[in-house]
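Model it.
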Amino acid sequence: MRLAIALIWLLAVSGRAEVVWRDAATLTLEGRGWADVVGPYDRLPRKAQATVPASVWGLSKHSAGVAVRFVTDSPEVSVRWSLTGDGLAMPHMPATGVSGVDLYRREPSGKWRFIGNGRPTQPEGNTARFAVGPGGARDYRLYLPLYNGASSVEIGVPDGAEIRPGQASAPEARIVYYGTSIAQGGCASRPGTAHVAIMGRLLDREMVNLGFSGSGRMEPEVAALIAEIPAAAYVVDCLWNMGGLDEPEIGGRIKSLVATIRKRHRDTPIVFVGQSHMDPAAHPTRLTKVQEQAVKDLRERGFTGLHLIGGAGLIGSDGEGTVDGCHPTDLGMMRQAYAMAPTLRSILRAVSKGR
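Modeled.
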């Protein structure tokens, strides 16, 4: 077996081994809350088109948070992917994050290690090749584009190498993260550095990313869909998109969302995140106070399992954590993930002990 792997390695690095391609949709897909989708890497179910706002539906076609899990003994991994949109980049976010792919590998320690980024150059037929070296069958995770859709994704390994689906997470162990452009991944330099993805690795949990740029507004139709997803916790991080609503409306949407989730999931933790303002003096922001009051009102009405994470400290206090005063840089994303993960870990541990 070792001789065969070594031979594959020599052939791969010398460029003589034929690459055999496999449709990524036939492997294990993480980050999808529903199976009945229009495209394999969409984030909302087919039926949602008739109910959710058009902006939410359009953004749900972006593959943010969707990842391909697979196991291979190949010393080399290739990726070939095509995009649904022509816009590879944005003025404040590079193409590597908007339309690129990220490959990670689980190390013997259990931690996930970044292997490389696939850089898009065109809407169709992008390719990347990663020399990962010999070492036997190992677990990989390929994160898909944050602000573009994937029309096709293929994983390639040299002929003779093994590739199979990775282990799927239990649905009830997932964390659903609902929010704004920040949750979707703006403005991470690559998919694996979005804070939702980082938290998934820190907590060793599958994350269902329901971040919708400019459109995380807690509409009842979206709340009803979220409630359909079995999860270990629901995180709600929508305040940056709620500023156009008056305070009673914001409070009403928070209360309606909680009531909708509680109809299906009586005890699952619901965690509300405060507004992550870059100015330390701004905390708690007006919107954070409105949210905290709504949660207080719900608790007084008997709703349990509601938690708050304040906005202060999420992206640091030095002003270096954002691109534009709102959307995090990779530094801000890392800070936010490391600020939130301990609280989520503690909440999940407490729920597990209470069972």
